[in-house]
Amino acid sequence: WYQRRVRAKTEAQLAREEKRIEKEKEKAARQAQAAAAKGMRKENWMDYMTILVDNKIATGTGGIEILTTLELENMKCEVVCQPLPNTISFDRTELLADNGSIVKTKIHEEVVLLVEQAETIADHIRADTLLPHVRRCCAILSEEVISTVTLLVMGLDRVMKRKKGSIVDRAQWEGGLIELQLEMNITSYCLKNNAELTDNIRMFCKSLGERPHKLRANKDLFVGAHKDSLFVDKDGRGYLQVWIAQLQDIRSINEAIASAVARSTPPLSYSPTLSRVQIKMQPSVL
Q: Fewest CB atoms less than 10 Å from the CB: which of 118, 188, 263, 264?
């Protein structure tokens, strides 16, 4: 009897201990998830984004100014030797909850900024070698990871305002960049100084930092937030209110927008003469 009692008491203690450990694990998991969610908030994008600046840009004209300005704005920067010189890329740190602890995962973003001087681009446009030049740059980048390249051109005014004439005229310049966009889907920005370059770096970094949140927010088109119960009688009265409620289940559609859309484009079954309606489309609409 005594041994059975001791055994039962021991088993009860073990069960309580297992339950306590299980609760502690659940609490730690909740705390880790909350900490990860807090750290990855949209407004905290600067905390987990790192700007990787090629050493040629950092040591070039105005490089120290660019790095100082970004760091004064609490943006993390690292000077690295990029596979392609004069490029800027971005790393994003993702926080994940795993068994009650927070795991940091580094993700290399596929966006690359290629910084070129206007004189270099003008020479390529004049020699009709801009596309081969950019293709070579993209080939070097693709050896590491498939990247989306954006061209940042510095000092366009220096080329266009030369006293002895420009290397290329405005039409040639714009034609070369348009051809680049059409042939290789590469967008270009013409910048005047390092301040504009810094603004563009910040813009791209902010966009990449907020992108995961925007993707999660737009993942579901329908939010299903409308909870009211609506009644439709046998004569169809109330159907318009149901249509308005259904429209409000679409993300970013409020009651005013839903009402305007519902009244301009009522549902097909809203009209009592639906069976007599014939839909005709003009050839130009098809």
A: 264
Interatomic CA distance for residues 93 and 103, integer angstroms: 10
Query: Tokens standing for 98?
Result: 């795993």
pTM for this prediction = 0.64
Task: Let me know: does 258 contact 247? Beta carbons within 8 Å.
Answer: yes
Which residue type does 94 have?
A: E
The stretches in the chain having pLDDT less than 70 are 1-2, 32-33, 36-43, 96-102, 144-146, 161-166, 216-232, 266-286
Q: State residue 223's pLDDT score.
A: 53
Q: How is the chain split among helix, strand and coil, in percent rounded to 5?
A: 55, 20, 30
Q: How open is the CA angle 143-146-149, to the nearest 5 degrees?
A: 105
β-bridge mates for residue 78, sequence order:
52
- Residue 187's alpha-carbon distances to 55, 83, 151, in angstroms, are 24, 21, 6
- Cα torsion 184, 190, 193, 195: sign: negative
Q: What are phi and psi of 247, to 5 degrees?
A: -65, -35
Q: How far apart are CA 200 and CA 153, in angstroms?
A: 11
Q: How far apart are CA 139 and CA 52, in angstroms?
A: 20
Q: Which helix (H) or strand (E) holds 182?
A: helix 170-184
